[in-house]
Amino acid sequence: MALPMEVRSIVHDVLSERLSAVVDNRFDAGEFRLSESAKCGRYRVAKVLGMVKEEHDEVDAGYFERGHLIERWVVEGFRRKFPRRCRTQQTVKTPFGDTGHIDLWFPAERRIIEVKSVSDREQDLPRPEHVMQVQAYMHFLRNARGERRADSSELVYVRYGRQLSYEVHIVPYDEAVGQAIEDELRMLHEYAERYELPPIPSGYDPMSPPCMTYYGRAERCPLWSVCWKGSDRAPKLDAPEVADWVRDLAMLDAEKKALKAQEKTLEEAMKDIQAKLGALLDIYGVKQVSADGVTVTRTVVTPKPKFDMEAALADGALPTDVVERYQKVPKPYETWYVKRPKGQKEDAE
């Protein structure tokens, strides 16, 4: 029988291998994905040409795998209920050699079902990129005579959180949208064949989506530097909106420092009271004390041992090549400092 530590080690290895496989085999970057029909064409060409590469870690792989598992539950349920009426993972091909895979297709009903998993906190469904994805599927799913074989799609969103829930959105085929997707795809292939990037769309700017997104944290498109470094379409450093950003940052910086100072004062006051209560708990040999319906519990936490890797390497206890295999290189990060004019107090804003 395996010991608990061996079980943890085996489970860790199994999950790590699976997530690594998800990252390595996620997509073929050498073709245009129909699921990215709503994305920037310039970015799509750059990815096909190998100029940018999507960097995914095990956290991303975990999201992909969770979505895959939820999708499989729903798809398998449809297949069991309608074994002769639906087809799963139906391949759809474009005239340009690109392929996509439809989750569920009901040929007789001329109907497509795509399953997506989202957080229970997500709003504004369906996502525009998912609508464009199924529009592309309906446009390119054709028979040998070139006749379309789907007129409507249903986007099934399974929400995960404290419990699973779902919602369904119907997307009818739009001929104008489908033709626009095909025209753009033809154009992107022409650019890729010339090893040339399309121009930056006129409505884009370096501070707004899709060039910079703000979902929880600000992130730049992987092609951002290629598109915007030295560009004259960015605001000038002395532009009024830039001055507003500087003022706002200074104000928020002052508020943050004031809150930190307040937090430090509160923590010091709490430590004094915790010391008194801790002494009483030790005297009476108990873990908690109550008053006015409030219960305060003290838990003694034994910290995990820390390993001094530098000392071990210096002593020759660990081979350098072994350590390097497990070394993770951190991503660069930014530090910011707000300097005010002399005599200006931080709380003056």
Describe this structure in words.
The mean pLDDT is 86. The N and C termini lie far apart (66 Å). The chain is α+β, with helices and mostly antiparallel strands. It is extended and about 85 Å long. The strands form 3 sheets. A 5-stranded mixed sheet has the order 1-2-3-4-5, with helices on both faces. The protein has helices spanning 4-24, 41-48, 58-81, 128-140, 175-193, 224-228, 240-284, 309-314, 320-325; strands at 87-93, 99-106, 111-119, 152-160, 165-172, 212-215, 217-220, 288-291, 294-297. It has 9 helices and 9 strands. Helix 2 (41-48) packs across helix 5. The longest helix has 45 residues, at 240-284. It folds into 2 domains: 11-199, Lambda Exonuclease, Chain A, CATH 3.90.320.10; 240-348, no CATH class.
Structure at a glance:
With 349 residues, the protein is an alpha+beta fold.
Give the helix/strand layout.
Elements: H1 4-24, H2 41-48, H3 58-81, E1 87-93, E2 99-106, E3 111-119, H4 128-140, E4 152-160, E5 165-172, H5 175-193, E6 212-215, E7 217-220, H6 224-228, H7 240-284, E8 288-291, E9 294-297, H8 309-314, H9 320-325
Parallel strand pairs: 3-4
Antiparallel strand pairs: 1-2, 2-3, 4-5, 6-7, 8-9
Helix pairs in contact: 1-3, 2-5, 4-5
Coiled coil: 242-276
Domain PD-(D/E)XK endonuclease-like: 75-227
Protein name: PD-(D/E)XK endonuclease-like domain-containing protein
